[in-house]
Automatic annotation (TrEMBL), chain A:
The keyword Transmembrane helix applies. Keywords: Membrane, Transmembrane, Transmembrane helix. It comes from the Bacteria. It comes from Kutzneria buriramensis. The chain crosses the membrane at residues 21-39. This is Putative cobalt transporter subunit CbtB.
TrEMBL record, chain B:
This is Putative cobalt transporter subunit CbtA. It comes from Kutzneria buriramensis. The keyword Membrane applies. It comes from the Bacteria. The chain crosses the membrane at residues 75-97, 109-127, 147-167, 179-198, 244-265. InterPro entries: CbtA_put (IPR012666). Signal peptide: none annotated. The lineage of its organism: Bacteria, Bacillati, Actinomycetota, Actinomycetes, Pseudonocardiales. Keywords: Membrane, Transmembrane, Transmembrane helix.
Amino acid sequence: MSTIPATTAVATPVVLPLPKAMLWLGGTVLFALALYYFIGIDQGATSVFGDNMYIHEFVHDARHFLGFPCH
Amino acid sequence: MEKRIILRGVLVGALAGLLAFVFARIFAEPQIQAAIDYESGRDQAQAALDKAAGLPAGDEGPEIFSRAIQANVGIGVGMVLFGVAMGALFAVAYAVCLGRVGNLRPRTLSMLVAGGGFLGIYLVPFIKYPANPPSIGHQETIAPRGALYVLMMVCSVAFLIGAVVLGKRLAKRFGNWNATLLATLAFVVVIGVAMALLPSLGELAANVRDYGPQATETPLPLKNPAGQIVYPGFPADVLWDFRFYSIAAQAILWATLGLVFAPLAERLLAPKPAQQLAM
Ligand SMILES: [Zn+2]
């Protein structure tokens, strides 16, 4: 098998013009951070949906295993 | 283009989360169950001590979901959604890095971004605040523990991005190899200082008050008023296995992200004449 270089001779051509892509990139980051928050932190240190423990208890094992602080 | 990159990142993230879940179901759940068994045994021993001392019995919270639901469905949903979130962040980081971090092939960049995510979001925070199974962690300190973990994660990601920017700057003067070494060294020093400054969990005010000076919240042996051990400390082997599997699951998740996204990106970004026109 021939070795394929990790780098290309010319600069990687695709550069996303950030101002144009900002809406999608920013929205995606917000969506991801919201998911991260609800899986890892909500109804523990802080709580958005009141004082019940439904989200916390449901994803409880994942929360521990993914490294978030819990009980 | 950014939409196509994000869509692929999210789908690959879901797959990565699913694989990590299968691993967790097989390897982590027995350890989690062992930790829960330890906790209920300890609670019983504590209740017996309290009764002997004439203290009122503390009541347990109501069980909302059964252990079967938590151990089979809850952990699956949690890990797949975590994979989706990490896939989305991965895709954004990939899109921003494209063409801005040197002449890397699309698939090489995919592996590097995945490695950065593994380090920045999980492994570096883990060094200071490692994953804990149930029964490790005091209810009273969940607020500071949550804040410290997020702070550690934000520092780790921010310093990692800083190191990449620094490496790019230095590359012009020192060449790629030396610039990479210097940027890595800078990252290690700065994150090391942050870790030294942040408190260990045992040093939190509520813990020092209730348990004296300890490094962590890992349960110590339970003693009766005469000082005899009536229940052992948390089993070290369960803790090691749990943490080792936790790292392995995250490694599976990020490796899947990098490896599966790589050929998709290569195809998406291949300079085909027709596609160049479309862009
Ligand atoms: Zn817990």
